[in-house]
Amino acid sequence: MNTIVSPSLLSADFLHLEKEIEMINNSKAQWLHIDVMDGVFVPNLSFGFPILEAIRPIIKKPLDVHLMIVEPMKFVDQLAALDVDTMNIHYEVSPHLHRSLTAIRKAGMKAAVTLNPHTPVCLVEDVLEELDMVLLMSVNPGFGGQKFIDHTLEKVAKLRNMIDKRGLKTLIEVDGGVNATTGAKLVAAGADALVAGSYVFGSEDPQQAIEGLYNLKR
Ligand code: DX5
Ligand code: ZN
């Protein structure tokens, strides 16, 4: 199976967003990764609804929205109205995770939980049935262009094992420091989907960079 590639718009050229989105539309990327930050959960701000609403009509790929915010559930309806495909909420801000995941699915979106580098994968074991995807952070969230944390590979393998043993279809996505080298290791360890920001948008031929990741086979 090919790897699902989800280019992170955070690393795009914001002066030419339309051109960047068209590049993604015409690439092998299956999803588009959108990083929303609130300056509280993470020490940075990115973009929110005014920008998302403006660019939504030209995006042809399913939206993979990663919410790095303290109260993600406030925005379920607004995200569903934007026809978001997958809503990723962080484990670290979700005291009632089961309830939140159920609400996301009820709103018509796929439910995903994101784990920071220090959050163990065993913590999602009892909600796996409610999860369409687990997003493992391989950097501390908040910024693009950081170095990949190697320990993520062990987390991917552990989670793969957990999902396969139960015969579930839950996807594993990894976000942070993904490039051709780390991407190959992640897919070998059992990742289904890769987020890539600086590697894609910083490369001379972004579509080829996407295709290289897409061609990694598990
Ligand atoms: C970081 C974001 C990532 C970021 C990845 O907090 O969640 O999606 O854009 O950037 P790279 O691929 O450059 O590490
Ligand atoms: Zn992200």
How would you explain this protein's 3D organization?
The chain has 218 residues and is of the alpha/beta class. It has a single domain (4-214), classed as TIM Barrel (Alpha-Beta Barrel). It is built from eight helices and eight strands, in the order βαβαβαβαββαβαβαα. The chain has an eight-stranded parallel β-sheet with strand order 1-8-7-6-5-4-3-2. The longest helix is centred in the last third of the chain and has 14 residues, at 152-165. The protein is globular and about 45 Å long. The chain starts with a strand and ends with a helix. Residues 8, 10-11, 33, 35, 66, 139, 141-146, 175-178, 195-199 line the site of D-xylitol-5-phosphate (DX5). Its EC number is 5.1.3.1. It catalyses: D-ribulose 5-phosphate = D-xylulose 5-phosphate. This is Ribulose-phosphate 3-epimerase.
Key words describing this protein structure:
TIM Barrel, binds D-xylitol-5-phosphate, binds zinc ion, alpha/beta, single chain, metal-binding, 8 helices, 8-stranded parallel β-sheet, globular, Ribulose-phosphate 3-epimerase
Provide a quick synopsis of the model.
32% of the residues lie in helices and 19% in strands. It is built from eight helices and eight strands. The protein starts with a strand and ends with a helix.
Order of helices and strands: EHEHEHEHEEHEHEHH
Low-confidence sequence ranges: none
Name the CATH architecture: Alpha-Beta Barrel
* CA-based gyration radius: 16 Å
Report how far the terminal alpha carbons are from each other. 6 Å
The named CATH superfamily? Aldolase class I
Q: Could you give the topology of this structure?
A:
Layout: E1 4-7, H1 17-25, E2 32-37, H2 49-55, E3 63-68, H3 76-81, E4 86-90, H4 97-106, E5 110-115, E6 133-137, H5 152-165, E7 171-175, H6 180-189, E8 193-196, H7 198-201, H8 206-214
Parallel strand pairs: 1-8, 2-3, 3-4, 4-5, 5-6, 6-7, 7-8
Residues 8, 10-11, 33, 35, 66, 139, 141-146, 175-178, 195-199 line the site of D-xylitol-5-phosphate.
